[in-house]
Amino acid sequence: MRWRAHRPFRRPSLETEGAVTSKRAPTTMRVDHVAPALFVLVVVAFYAATLRPQETWIAGDFALYIMHAKNIALGLPYNDTMYLHNPENAIISPAAYPPGFPLLLSVAWLLSERSSPDQALLLFKLMNLFFLAGTVLLVYAIALPRLGFRWAFLLTVLFGVSPVVFRSRDLILSDIAFMFWCYAALLLCDLVRRRKGARLPVVGLALAVAMACSTRVAGVALAGALLATFLVRRRPDWPSALAVGAATLGAFAANRIAHTDAGTYLGYFERLRSTEATGWLIDVGLAYGRGIVEIFGIGFDRVTNAGVALLLVLIAFGGFLIRVRRGAGAAEFFAVLYTAMILLFPVRLEPVRYALPVVPLMMFYIMTVFAALAERSGRGTLVFGAVIAGFLVLYVPFYLTHDELSAPDLAVTDADSQALFRKIAEDVPADGLILARNPRVVGLFAQRHASIWPELPSDARFWSYADATKAQYLLQELRVPEPETYNMAGIIQRNPDRLDLLFRNGSFAFYRIRPAP
Question: How much is the average pLDDT of 329-356?
Fold first, then answer.
Protein backbone atom coordinates (compact mmCIF):
# COMPACT_ATOMS: atom_id res chain seq x y z
CA MET A 1 0.00 0.00 0.00
CA ARG A 2 2.85 2.35 0.71
CA TRP A 3 4.27 1.79 -2.78
CA ARG A 4 0.90 2.57 -4.40
CA ALA A 5 0.41 5.64 -2.28
CA HIS A 6 3.66 7.13 -3.56
CA ARG A 7 3.26 6.03 -7.15
CA PRO A 8 3.81 9.16 -9.27
CA PHE A 9 2.27 7.69 -12.42
CA ARG A 10 -1.24 7.11 -11.06
CA ARG A 11 -2.57 10.36 -12.47
CA PRO A 12 -5.59 11.51 -14.44
CA SER A 13 -5.82 11.18 -18.21
CA LEU A 14 -3.40 12.80 -20.60
CA GLU A 15 -5.59 15.82 -21.18
CA THR A 16 -6.13 16.54 -17.49
CA GLU A 17 -2.66 15.71 -16.31
CA GLY A 18 -1.61 19.24 -17.09
CA ALA A 19 -3.98 20.35 -14.36
CA VAL A 20 -2.20 18.25 -11.76
CA THR A 21 -0.03 20.45 -9.58
CA SER A 22 2.27 19.61 -6.76
CA LYS A 23 4.03 21.75 -4.22
CA ARG A 24 7.64 22.09 -5.18
CA ALA A 25 10.39 23.83 -3.34
CA PRO A 26 11.55 27.05 -5.04
CA THR A 27 14.90 25.44 -5.89
CA THR A 28 13.21 22.51 -7.62
CA MET A 29 10.98 24.87 -9.56
CA ARG A 30 14.04 26.78 -10.72
CA VAL A 31 15.74 23.58 -11.81
CA ASP A 32 12.60 22.54 -13.69
CA HIS A 33 12.75 25.76 -15.68
CA VAL A 34 16.43 26.65 -15.85
CA ALA A 35 17.83 23.24 -16.80
CA PRO A 36 15.86 22.80 -20.07
CA ALA A 37 16.33 26.46 -20.97
CA LEU A 38 20.10 26.21 -20.51
CA PHE A 39 20.23 22.99 -22.48
CA VAL A 40 18.32 24.52 -25.39
CA LEU A 41 20.56 27.61 -25.36
CA VAL A 42 23.70 25.48 -25.47
CA VAL A 43 22.53 23.03 -28.11
CA VAL A 44 21.03 25.72 -30.34
CA ALA A 45 24.21 27.80 -30.07
CA PHE A 46 26.17 24.73 -31.19
CA TYR A 47 23.74 24.05 -34.01
CA ALA A 48 23.90 27.67 -35.15
CA ALA A 49 27.71 27.56 -35.14
CA THR A 50 27.68 24.42 -37.29
CA LEU A 51 25.17 25.58 -39.90
CA ARG A 52 26.45 25.30 -43.44
CA PRO A 53 25.69 28.32 -45.68
CA GLN A 54 25.03 26.00 -48.60
CA GLU A 55 22.32 23.82 -50.05
CA THR A 56 22.80 20.91 -52.38
CA TRP A 57 21.50 20.16 -55.87
CA ILE A 58 20.32 16.78 -54.60
CA ALA A 59 17.49 18.59 -52.80
CA GLY A 60 15.15 21.18 -54.24
CA ASP A 61 12.18 21.73 -51.96
CA PHE A 62 13.96 24.64 -50.27
CA ALA A 63 14.12 26.53 -53.57
CA LEU A 64 10.35 26.44 -54.14
CA TYR A 65 9.72 27.50 -50.53
CA ILE A 66 12.03 30.49 -51.01
CA MET A 67 10.38 31.45 -54.32
CA HIS A 68 7.00 31.42 -52.55
CA ALA A 69 8.49 33.50 -49.71
CA LYS A 70 9.82 36.05 -52.20
CA ASN A 71 6.38 36.41 -53.77
CA ILE A 72 4.77 36.95 -50.37
CA ALA A 73 7.39 39.54 -49.41
CA LEU A 74 6.97 41.45 -52.68
CA GLY A 75 3.20 41.10 -52.90
CA LEU A 76 3.37 39.01 -56.08
CA PRO A 77 1.01 36.14 -56.99
CA TYR A 78 1.92 33.35 -54.60
CA ASN A 79 2.21 30.49 -57.09
CA ASP A 80 3.78 32.55 -59.91
CA THR A 81 7.23 31.00 -59.58
CA MET A 82 9.89 30.00 -62.08
CA TYR A 83 8.97 26.34 -61.58
CA LEU A 84 6.75 24.76 -64.23
CA HIS A 85 5.05 21.68 -62.78
CA ASN A 86 5.06 18.57 -64.98
CA PRO A 87 2.08 16.28 -64.21
CA GLU A 88 3.96 13.44 -65.92
CA ASN A 89 6.65 13.64 -63.23
CA ALA A 90 4.62 14.85 -60.25
CA ILE A 91 6.71 12.89 -57.74
CA ILE A 92 9.31 15.67 -57.65
CA SER A 93 6.90 18.10 -55.95
CA PRO A 94 3.55 19.82 -56.37
CA ALA A 95 3.25 23.07 -58.30
CA ALA A 96 2.84 25.09 -55.11
CA TYR A 97 3.33 24.35 -51.41
CA PRO A 98 1.01 25.53 -48.62
CA PRO A 99 1.76 29.15 -47.62
CA GLY A 100 2.44 28.71 -43.89
CA PHE A 101 6.19 28.05 -44.06
CA PRO A 102 6.88 30.54 -46.89
CA LEU A 103 5.03 33.17 -44.86
CA LEU A 104 7.60 32.71 -42.10
CA LEU A 105 10.48 32.66 -44.58
CA SER A 106 9.28 35.89 -46.17
CA VAL A 107 10.64 37.80 -43.17
CA ALA A 108 14.06 36.25 -43.70
CA TRP A 109 13.83 37.00 -47.42
CA LEU A 110 13.27 40.70 -46.74
CA LEU A 111 16.25 40.75 -44.39
CA SER A 112 18.44 38.93 -46.90
CA GLU A 113 17.37 40.74 -50.08
CA ARG A 114 20.77 42.40 -50.52
CA SER A 115 22.83 39.52 -49.15
CA SER A 116 24.96 37.05 -51.05
CA PRO A 117 23.38 33.62 -51.75
CA ASP A 118 25.31 31.90 -48.97
CA GLN A 119 24.41 34.62 -46.45
CA ALA A 120 20.75 34.41 -47.46
CA LEU A 121 20.70 30.63 -47.07
CA LEU A 122 22.27 30.95 -43.63
CA LEU A 123 19.59 33.41 -42.55
CA PHE A 124 16.82 31.06 -43.67
CA LYS A 125 18.43 28.26 -41.68
CA LEU A 126 18.73 30.43 -38.57
CA MET A 127 15.00 31.16 -38.73
CA ASN A 128 14.29 27.44 -38.97
CA LEU A 129 16.56 26.90 -35.97
CA PHE A 130 14.34 29.20 -33.91
CA PHE A 131 11.42 26.80 -34.43
CA LEU A 132 13.63 23.85 -33.57
CA ALA A 133 14.48 25.44 -30.22
CA GLY A 134 10.81 26.09 -29.58
CA THR A 135 9.89 22.50 -30.44
CA VAL A 136 12.42 21.08 -27.96
CA LEU A 137 11.00 23.28 -25.20
CA LEU A 138 7.44 22.32 -26.10
CA VAL A 139 8.31 18.62 -25.89
CA TYR A 140 9.71 19.22 -22.41
CA ALA A 141 6.64 21.21 -21.30
CA ILE A 142 4.30 18.45 -22.48
CA ALA A 143 6.34 15.66 -20.88
CA LEU A 144 7.06 17.32 -17.51
CA PRO A 145 3.67 16.79 -15.79
CA ARG A 146 3.46 13.26 -17.17
CA LEU A 147 6.96 11.94 -16.52
CA GLY A 148 8.37 14.19 -13.82
CA PHE A 149 11.47 16.35 -14.15
CA ARG A 150 14.18 13.70 -14.40
CA TRP A 151 12.61 11.67 -17.22
CA ALA A 152 11.19 14.69 -19.02
CA PHE A 153 14.59 16.37 -19.03
CA LEU A 154 16.26 13.19 -20.27
CA LEU A 155 13.69 13.01 -23.07
CA THR A 156 14.44 16.63 -23.95
CA VAL A 157 18.18 16.03 -24.12
CA LEU A 158 17.93 12.79 -26.10
CA PHE A 159 15.55 14.36 -28.58
CA GLY A 160 17.52 17.61 -28.83
CA VAL A 161 20.79 15.86 -29.72
CA SER A 162 19.29 13.00 -31.73
CA PRO A 163 20.77 12.35 -35.18
CA VAL A 164 17.51 13.26 -36.92
CA VAL A 165 17.39 16.65 -35.20
CA PHE A 166 21.06 17.32 -35.85
CA ARG A 167 20.55 16.66 -39.54
CA SER A 168 17.29 18.61 -39.72
CA ARG A 169 18.87 21.71 -38.21
CA ASP A 170 20.65 22.38 -41.51
CA LEU A 171 17.68 22.04 -43.87
CA ILE A 172 15.34 24.72 -45.17
CA LEU A 173 12.20 22.62 -45.04
CA SER A 174 8.76 22.92 -43.48
CA ASP A 175 9.22 19.84 -41.25
CA ILE A 176 10.47 21.60 -38.12
CA ALA A 177 7.99 24.48 -38.36
CA PHE A 178 5.15 21.98 -38.79
CA MET A 179 6.36 20.00 -35.78
CA PHE A 180 6.52 23.22 -33.74
CA TRP A 181 2.89 24.09 -34.46
CA CYS A 182 1.75 20.53 -33.73
CA TYR A 183 3.37 20.43 -30.30
CA ALA A 184 2.26 23.98 -29.54
CA ALA A 185 -1.30 22.80 -30.22
CA LEU A 186 -0.87 19.73 -28.00
CA LEU A 187 0.43 21.88 -25.14
CA LEU A 188 -2.33 24.45 -25.60
CA CYS A 189 -4.85 21.61 -25.55
CA ASP A 190 -3.61 20.88 -22.03
CA LEU A 191 -4.14 24.51 -21.07
CA VAL A 192 -7.63 24.54 -22.54
CA ARG A 193 -8.59 21.50 -20.46
CA ARG A 194 -7.02 23.01 -17.36
CA ARG A 195 -8.47 26.51 -17.74
CA LYS A 196 -12.03 25.82 -18.77
CA GLY A 197 -13.70 28.92 -20.13
CA ALA A 198 -10.46 30.88 -20.63
CA ARG A 199 -10.34 32.44 -24.08
CA LEU A 200 -6.62 32.99 -24.55
CA PRO A 201 -5.61 29.30 -24.66
CA VAL A 202 -8.44 28.60 -27.14
CA VAL A 203 -7.30 31.46 -29.37
CA GLY A 204 -3.72 30.22 -29.20
CA LEU A 205 -4.87 26.68 -29.98
CA ALA A 206 -6.81 27.86 -33.02
CA LEU A 207 -3.77 29.81 -34.27
CA ALA A 208 -1.49 26.79 -33.85
CA VAL A 209 -3.93 24.54 -35.72
CA ALA A 210 -4.33 27.08 -38.51
CA MET A 211 -0.56 27.41 -38.91
CA ALA A 212 -0.05 23.63 -38.86
CA CYS A 213 -2.69 23.08 -41.55
CA SER A 214 -1.30 25.92 -43.68
CA THR A 215 2.24 24.56 -43.31
CA ARG A 216 1.58 20.94 -44.23
CA VAL A 217 -1.55 19.33 -45.62
CA ALA A 218 -0.92 16.58 -43.05
CA GLY A 219 -2.05 19.08 -40.41
CA VAL A 220 -5.49 17.55 -40.88
CA ALA A 221 -4.27 14.72 -38.62
CA LEU A 222 -3.65 17.24 -35.84
CA ALA A 223 -7.06 18.82 -36.32
CA GLY A 224 -8.71 15.41 -36.24
CA ALA A 225 -6.85 14.48 -33.05
CA LEU A 226 -7.96 17.66 -31.28
CA LEU A 227 -11.55 17.31 -32.41
CA ALA A 228 -11.60 13.73 -31.12
CA THR A 229 -10.17 14.93 -27.81
CA PHE A 230 -12.83 17.58 -27.34
CA LEU A 231 -15.82 15.63 -28.66
CA VAL A 232 -15.24 12.02 -27.56
CA ARG A 233 -16.16 12.79 -23.97
CA ARG A 234 -19.20 12.55 -21.75
CA ARG A 235 -19.42 16.34 -21.86
CA PRO A 236 -18.01 17.53 -25.19
CA ASP A 237 -16.14 20.82 -25.24
CA TRP A 238 -18.04 22.41 -28.10
CA PRO A 239 -16.43 25.88 -28.00
CA SER A 240 -12.93 24.42 -28.31
CA ALA A 241 -14.03 21.97 -30.99
CA LEU A 242 -15.65 24.79 -32.97
CA ALA A 243 -12.47 26.87 -32.66
CA VAL A 244 -10.37 23.99 -33.99
CA GLY A 245 -12.85 23.32 -36.81
CA ALA A 246 -12.96 26.99 -37.81
CA ALA A 247 -9.16 27.24 -37.75
CA THR A 248 -8.85 24.16 -39.95
CA LEU A 249 -11.38 25.43 -42.47
CA GLY A 250 -9.73 28.85 -42.46
CA ALA A 251 -6.32 27.33 -43.12
CA PHE A 252 -7.53 25.24 -46.03
CA ALA A 253 -9.37 28.27 -47.41
CA ALA A 254 -6.07 30.17 -47.29
CA ASN A 255 -4.39 27.23 -49.03
CA ARG A 256 -7.00 27.38 -51.75
CA ILE A 257 -6.60 31.13 -52.19
CA ALA A 258 -2.85 30.60 -52.53
CA HIS A 259 -3.55 27.86 -55.11
CA THR A 260 -1.77 25.21 -53.07
CA ASP A 261 -1.42 22.12 -55.21
CA ALA A 262 -3.09 19.55 -52.97
CA GLY A 263 -4.29 17.67 -56.03
CA THR A 264 -0.79 16.36 -56.72
CA TYR A 265 -0.66 14.75 -53.27
CA LEU A 266 -4.06 13.15 -53.81
CA GLY A 267 -2.91 11.95 -57.21
CA TYR A 268 -0.16 9.94 -55.56
CA PHE A 269 -2.81 7.59 -54.18
CA GLU A 270 -3.48 6.40 -57.73
CA ARG A 271 -0.29 4.38 -57.31
CA LEU A 272 -2.04 2.19 -54.74
CA ARG A 273 -4.30 0.72 -57.42
CA SER A 274 -1.40 -1.07 -59.05
CA THR A 275 0.13 -2.25 -55.77
CA GLU A 276 -0.66 -5.59 -54.17
CA ALA A 277 -1.42 -5.55 -50.45
CA THR A 278 1.48 -7.86 -49.56
CA GLY A 279 3.96 -5.86 -51.59
CA TRP A 280 2.65 -2.62 -50.11
CA LEU A 281 3.08 -3.90 -46.54
CA ILE A 282 6.63 -5.07 -47.27
CA ASP A 283 7.52 -1.72 -48.85
CA VAL A 284 6.09 0.19 -45.90
CA GLY A 285 7.96 -1.96 -43.39
CA LEU A 286 11.27 -1.67 -45.23
CA ALA A 287 10.96 2.07 -45.82
CA TYR A 288 10.07 3.01 -42.26
CA GLY A 289 12.44 0.42 -40.84
CA ARG A 290 15.25 2.22 -42.66
CA GLY A 291 13.74 5.49 -41.48
CA ILE A 292 13.93 4.51 -37.80
CA VAL A 293 17.53 3.38 -38.29
CA GLU A 294 18.36 6.81 -39.68
CA ILE A 295 16.31 8.69 -37.08
CA PHE A 296 18.24 7.17 -34.19
CA GLY A 297 21.55 6.86 -36.02
CA ILE A 298 21.71 3.08 -35.57
CA GLY A 299 25.02 2.02 -37.07
CA PHE A 300 25.47 -1.74 -36.75
CA ASP A 301 25.15 -4.40 -39.42
CA ARG A 302 21.89 -4.70 -41.34
CA VAL A 303 20.37 -7.48 -39.23
CA THR A 304 21.28 -5.80 -35.93
CA ASN A 305 19.94 -2.47 -37.21
CA ALA A 306 16.62 -4.10 -38.04
CA GLY A 307 16.47 -5.77 -34.63
CA VAL A 308 17.23 -2.56 -32.72
CA ALA A 309 14.70 -0.61 -34.80
CA LEU A 310 12.03 -3.22 -34.12
CA LEU A 311 12.87 -3.21 -30.41
CA LEU A 312 12.49 0.57 -30.23
CA VAL A 313 9.14 0.37 -31.99
CA LEU A 314 7.90 -2.33 -29.61
CA ILE A 315 9.02 -0.36 -26.54
CA ALA A 316 7.35 2.78 -27.87
CA PHE A 317 4.16 0.83 -28.55
CA GLY A 318 4.25 -0.44 -24.97
CA GLY A 319 4.51 3.14 -23.72
CA PHE A 320 1.63 4.12 -25.97
CA LEU A 321 -0.52 1.39 -24.42
CA ILE A 322 0.39 2.63 -20.95
CA ARG A 323 -0.76 6.12 -21.86
CA VAL A 324 -3.98 4.83 -23.42
CA ARG A 325 -4.68 2.79 -20.32
CA ARG A 326 -4.40 5.93 -18.23
CA GLY A 327 -6.66 7.85 -20.57
CA ALA A 328 -6.06 8.56 -24.26
CA GLY A 329 -5.75 12.22 -25.13
CA ALA A 330 -4.73 14.50 -27.97
CA ALA A 331 -1.19 13.12 -28.17
CA GLU A 332 -2.44 9.55 -28.56
CA PHE A 333 -5.05 10.53 -31.15
CA PHE A 334 -2.41 12.49 -33.05
CA ALA A 335 0.08 9.63 -32.90
CA VAL A 336 -2.48 7.20 -34.34
CA LEU A 337 -3.92 9.49 -37.02
CA TYR A 338 -0.62 10.87 -38.23
CA THR A 339 1.11 7.47 -38.25
CA ALA A 340 -1.79 5.96 -40.17
CA MET A 341 -1.60 8.82 -42.65
CA ILE A 342 2.09 8.40 -43.45
CA LEU A 343 1.83 4.60 -43.61
CA LEU A 344 -1.01 4.87 -46.12
CA PHE A 345 0.71 7.61 -48.11
CA PRO A 346 1.95 5.79 -51.23
CA VAL A 347 5.16 7.83 -51.58
CA ARG A 348 7.96 6.70 -49.26
CA LEU A 349 11.00 8.43 -50.76
CA GLU A 350 11.73 10.35 -47.54
CA PRO A 351 10.41 8.32 -44.60
CA VAL A 352 12.53 10.24 -42.08
CA ARG A 353 10.93 13.53 -43.04
CA TYR A 354 7.45 12.04 -42.99
CA ALA A 355 7.97 10.46 -39.56
CA LEU A 356 9.68 13.44 -37.92
CA PRO A 357 6.53 14.96 -36.32
CA VAL A 358 5.90 11.80 -34.27
CA VAL A 359 9.54 11.18 -33.29
CA PRO A 360 9.18 13.17 -30.02
CA LEU A 361 6.09 11.14 -29.15
CA MET A 362 7.88 7.90 -29.94
CA MET A 363 10.69 8.90 -27.59
CA PHE A 364 8.14 10.05 -25.01
CA TYR A 365 6.51 6.61 -25.06
CA ILE A 366 9.93 4.96 -24.73
CA MET A 367 10.64 7.12 -21.67
CA THR A 368 7.18 6.20 -20.31
CA VAL A 369 8.08 2.51 -20.36
CA PHE A 370 11.42 2.99 -18.63
CA ALA A 371 10.02 5.42 -16.08
CA ALA A 372 7.35 2.85 -15.19
CA LEU A 373 10.01 0.12 -15.03
CA ALA A 374 12.15 2.27 -12.76
CA GLU A 375 9.22 2.84 -10.44
CA ARG A 376 8.12 -0.78 -10.27
CA SER A 377 11.62 -2.19 -9.83
CA GLY A 378 12.59 0.34 -7.19
CA ARG A 379 15.92 0.83 -9.01
CA GLY A 380 15.31 4.16 -10.63
CA THR A 381 18.94 5.25 -10.81
CA LEU A 382 20.02 1.97 -12.41
CA VAL A 383 17.27 2.10 -15.05
CA PHE A 384 17.93 5.78 -15.70
CA GLY A 385 21.62 5.11 -16.22
CA ALA A 386 20.90 2.14 -18.47
CA VAL A 387 18.70 4.30 -20.71
CA ILE A 388 21.44 6.91 -21.01
CA ALA A 389 24.00 4.21 -21.82
CA GLY A 390 21.70 2.64 -24.40
CA PHE A 391 21.19 5.88 -26.28
CA LEU A 392 24.89 6.69 -26.10
CA VAL A 393 25.56 3.36 -27.82
CA LEU A 394 23.26 4.56 -30.61
CA TYR A 395 24.28 8.21 -30.84
CA VAL A 396 28.05 8.23 -30.32
CA PRO A 397 28.96 6.05 -33.34
CA PHE A 398 26.76 8.22 -35.52
CA TYR A 399 28.55 11.42 -34.55
CA LEU A 400 31.94 9.74 -34.93
CA THR A 401 31.26 8.33 -38.39
CA HIS A 402 29.03 10.93 -40.09
CA ASP A 403 30.29 14.24 -41.39
CA GLU A 404 27.45 16.72 -41.11
CA LEU A 405 29.72 19.78 -40.84
CA SER A 406 31.68 19.93 -44.10
CA ALA A 407 30.29 21.71 -47.14
CA PRO A 408 27.93 19.42 -49.08
CA ASP A 409 29.02 17.97 -52.38
CA LEU A 410 27.82 19.99 -55.38
CA ALA A 411 26.45 22.95 -53.43
CA VAL A 412 24.30 25.48 -55.25
CA THR A 413 26.73 28.21 -54.18
CA ASP A 414 29.98 26.55 -55.31
CA ALA A 415 32.08 27.79 -58.26
CA ASP A 416 30.68 25.35 -60.84
CA SER A 417 27.10 26.21 -59.92
CA GLN A 418 27.70 29.95 -59.98
CA ALA A 419 29.40 29.68 -63.38
CA LEU A 420 26.36 27.79 -64.69
CA PHE A 421 23.94 30.40 -63.36
CA ARG A 422 25.95 33.21 -64.99
CA LYS A 423 25.91 31.37 -68.30
CA ILE A 424 22.15 30.88 -68.10
CA ALA A 425 21.65 34.56 -67.28
CA GLU A 426 23.73 35.52 -70.31
CA ASP A 427 22.30 33.11 -72.90
CA VAL A 428 18.72 32.26 -71.89
CA PRO A 429 16.06 34.89 -72.62
CA ALA A 430 13.63 35.84 -69.88
CA ASP A 431 10.88 33.73 -71.45
CA GLY A 432 13.11 30.69 -72.07
CA LEU A 433 12.32 27.29 -70.57
CA ILE A 434 14.99 24.93 -69.26
CA LEU A 435 14.46 21.21 -68.69
CA ALA A 436 16.43 20.07 -65.64
CA ARG A 437 16.50 17.38 -63.02
CA ASN A 438 16.21 20.07 -60.31
CA PRO A 439 14.08 22.76 -61.95
CA ARG A 440 13.28 24.53 -58.68
CA VAL A 441 16.97 25.17 -58.00
CA VAL A 442 17.40 26.52 -61.53
CA GLY A 443 14.32 28.70 -61.13
CA LEU A 444 15.50 30.25 -57.87
CA PHE A 445 19.18 30.86 -58.63
CA ALA A 446 19.13 31.36 -62.42
CA GLN A 447 15.78 33.22 -62.42
CA ARG A 448 14.60 31.37 -65.52
CA HIS A 449 11.59 29.14 -66.01
CA ALA A 450 12.42 25.47 -65.54
CA SER A 451 10.63 22.14 -65.61
CA ILE A 452 11.51 18.46 -65.40
CA TRP A 453 11.08 15.84 -68.10
CA PRO A 454 8.50 13.01 -67.75
CA GLU A 455 9.14 10.16 -65.36
CA LEU A 456 10.68 7.08 -67.02
CA PRO A 457 11.22 9.00 -70.25
CA SER A 458 11.64 7.20 -73.52
CA ASP A 459 13.05 9.25 -76.36
CA ALA A 460 9.55 9.78 -77.71
CA ARG A 461 8.09 10.90 -74.34
CA PHE A 462 10.97 13.25 -73.68
CA TRP A 463 10.76 14.99 -77.05
CA SER A 464 6.98 15.08 -76.90
CA TYR A 465 7.11 17.01 -73.63
CA ALA A 466 9.98 19.24 -74.80
CA ASP A 467 8.10 20.15 -77.98
CA ALA A 468 4.75 20.61 -76.22
CA THR A 469 6.25 23.05 -73.69
CA LYS A 470 8.53 24.68 -76.28
CA ALA A 471 11.53 24.01 -74.05
CA GLN A 472 14.68 25.56 -75.49
CA TYR A 473 17.40 24.27 -73.15
CA LEU A 474 18.46 21.11 -71.34
CA LEU A 475 20.62 20.91 -68.23
CA GLN A 476 22.44 17.69 -67.33
CA GLU A 477 24.01 17.19 -63.89
CA LEU A 478 27.24 15.24 -64.26
CA ARG A 479 28.38 14.60 -60.68
CA VAL A 480 25.10 13.49 -59.13
CA PRO A 481 24.20 9.80 -59.69
CA GLU A 482 21.34 9.61 -62.15
CA PRO A 483 18.37 7.44 -61.16
CA GLU A 484 17.19 4.92 -63.70
CA THR A 485 13.87 6.76 -63.84
CA TYR A 486 15.60 9.73 -65.51
CA ASN A 487 17.71 8.05 -68.25
CA MET A 488 18.89 11.45 -69.47
CA ALA A 489 22.44 10.42 -70.38
CA GLY A 490 21.12 7.87 -72.85
CA ILE A 491 18.69 10.33 -74.45
CA ILE A 492 21.49 12.84 -74.93
CA GLN A 493 23.78 10.25 -76.50
CA ARG A 494 21.09 9.03 -78.90
CA ASN A 495 19.97 12.48 -80.06
CA PRO A 496 23.06 14.56 -80.91
CA ASP A 497 21.23 16.09 -83.89
CA ARG A 498 18.79 17.92 -81.60
CA LEU A 499 21.21 19.26 -78.99
CA ASP A 500 23.96 21.88 -79.16
CA LEU A 501 26.41 22.00 -76.25
CA LEU A 502 26.61 25.58 -74.94
CA PHE A 503 28.49 25.13 -71.68
CA ARG A 504 30.28 22.42 -69.76
CA ASN A 505 32.33 22.20 -66.58
CA GLY A 506 33.07 19.43 -64.10
CA SER A 507 29.51 19.41 -62.76
CA PHE A 508 27.14 20.38 -65.57
CA ALA A 509 26.50 20.18 -69.28
CA PHE A 510 24.11 22.78 -70.72
CA TYR A 511 22.52 22.29 -74.15
CA ARG A 512 20.35 24.26 -76.52
CA ILE A 513 17.45 22.20 -77.89
CA ARG A 514 16.96 22.50 -81.63
CA PRO A 515 13.38 22.81 -82.87
CA ALA A 516 11.76 19.62 -84.14
CA PRO A 517 12.40 19.08 -87.85
Answer: 92
